[in-house]
Amino acid sequence: ASYMVVAEDLNNSSLPYMPVFPAGQVIRARAQYVDLPTIRGISYVTVYRQDASPLISSDCWYTFQGLSTDGLVYVSAAFKLSPSMFPAELDPNFDYEAFMATFTDYMNGSIAQLNAATPDQFSPSLTTLDGMIQSFIVTG
Questions:
Q1: Which pTM value belongs to this model?
Q2: How many CB atoms within 10 Å of residue 1?
Q3: Which of 17, 37, 47, 54 pairs with 84 at a CA distance of 20 to 30 A?
Q4: How far is CA 35 from CA 111, 127, 130, in A?
Q5: Can you tell me the distance from the alpha carbon of 65 to that of 38, in angstroms, rounded to the nearest whole number?
């Protein structure tokens, strides 16, 4: 669609997400363009936060954001996602001050882990979610 602008690096800026979340988009990983017969858009893994703390597995979302090829229908799909590389909960002895000293490196490392993971290191599998998105059709 002429409404979609193609960017070289999809992980370095905020990506579209509807409905609007009342928090900041702190993680954008595994972003890929999706071009279907009736919809064009983007799928990616994201985390929204209002604080600065380590990621836990329940923080992640897989989303598809797209527009019908005629530009009339916006399609938004979001699914809770549990990546195996993050713990289920924070350690009770978590040291916030030490964490903040390495926050930028931690976030960059977390994005790298998400990007390097296999589809089956996520629950549900990214292969399953990507397949579901591939089945979307807009009629009208």
A1: 0.86
A2: 13
A3: 17
A4: 24, 16, 12
A5: 13
User: For residue range 96-127, what is the model confidence (pLDDT) as tens digits?
Assistant: 999 999 999 999 999 999 999 999 999 999 99
Per-residue pLDDT reduced to its tens digit, 81-100? 999 999 999 999 999 999 99
Residue pair 59/86 in contact (Cβ under 8 Å)? The answer is yes
Q: Where are the domains of the chain?
A: 24-127
**Of 12, 23, 20, the residue nearest 76 (C-alpha):** 20
**Which residue in 80, 78, 85 sits closest to 110, CA to CA?**
85
Output helix, strand, coil percentages for the chain, rounded to the nearest 5.
Answer: 25, 30, 45
Number of DSSP helices (H) and strands (E) in the chain, helices first: 3, 5
